[in-house]
């Protein structure tokens, strides 16, 4: 088949097609323009400890926020399953007054089943709340790259808005996303 025949079928030249697909931009355009100077080993170690400590604190803040949100949202499930297991005669069989007068084995089993059934939608709700709150607070932008420890001249604030995480910048109303 000749080159003319391939053009008739609508096949494009691969080099033309690859120009249409945008590549990933560099991590930070300003820092990529000039080659940066490497730090000496001891300074690099000190900066690595600082950046590692900061990233660990941001991770712990994210973890604490997630724990609080999941605990509050899943509290009804926790309570229902707890009372179901506490009053069932085959599990704990508590001698509490409400277990003897109100809850028998059938109602305890119903509470256990109800707790596990409502757990799935509540986990989805908790995750949506956490994701929207983390996005609004820009918590994931607070992580610093390791290249700040290796090279001199990096910027701590990767975003123009101010603050180490760009949290001081106003909320962008143009960008909307469903969680």
From TrEMBL:
- Entry's Gene Ontology cellular component terms: plasma membrane
What is the recorded name of this protein?
A: Transmembrane protein 88B
Q: Name the encoding gene, please.
A: TMEM88B
Record region (Disordered):
1-21
Q: Which domain of life is it from?
A: Eukaryota
As for membrane topology, the entry says: Multi-pass membrane protein
- What subcellular compartments does it reside in? Membrane
* TM stretches of this protein: 57-85, 110-131
Composition-biased stretches, type Acidic residues, lie in 1-10
An MF annotation (GO) of this entry? PDZ domain binding
* Family in the record: Belongs to the TMEM88 family.
């Amino acid at each position: 088949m000749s080159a003319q025949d391939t053009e008739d079928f609508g096949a494009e030249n691969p080099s033309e097609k690859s120009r249409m697909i945008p590549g990933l931009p560099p991590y930070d355009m300003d820092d990529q323009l000039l080659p940066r100077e490497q730090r000496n080993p001891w300074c690099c170690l000190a900066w690595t400890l600082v950046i590692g400590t900061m990233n660990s604190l941001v991770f712990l803040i994210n973890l604490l926020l997630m724990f609080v949100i999941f605990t509050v949202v899943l509290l009804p499930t926790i309570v229902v399953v707890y009372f179901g297991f506490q009053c069932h005669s085959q599990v704990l069989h508590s001698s509490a007054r409400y277990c003897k007068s109100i809850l028998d084995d059938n109602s305890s089993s119903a509470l256990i089943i109800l707790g596990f059934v409502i757990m799935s939608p509540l986990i989805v709700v908790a995750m949506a709340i956490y994701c929207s709150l983390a996005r609004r607070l820009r918590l994931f932008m607070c992580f610093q790259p390791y290249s700040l420890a290796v090279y001199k001249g990096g910027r701590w604030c990767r975003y123009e808005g101010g603050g180490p995480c760009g949290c001081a910048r106003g909320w962008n109303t143009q960008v909307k996303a469903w969680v």
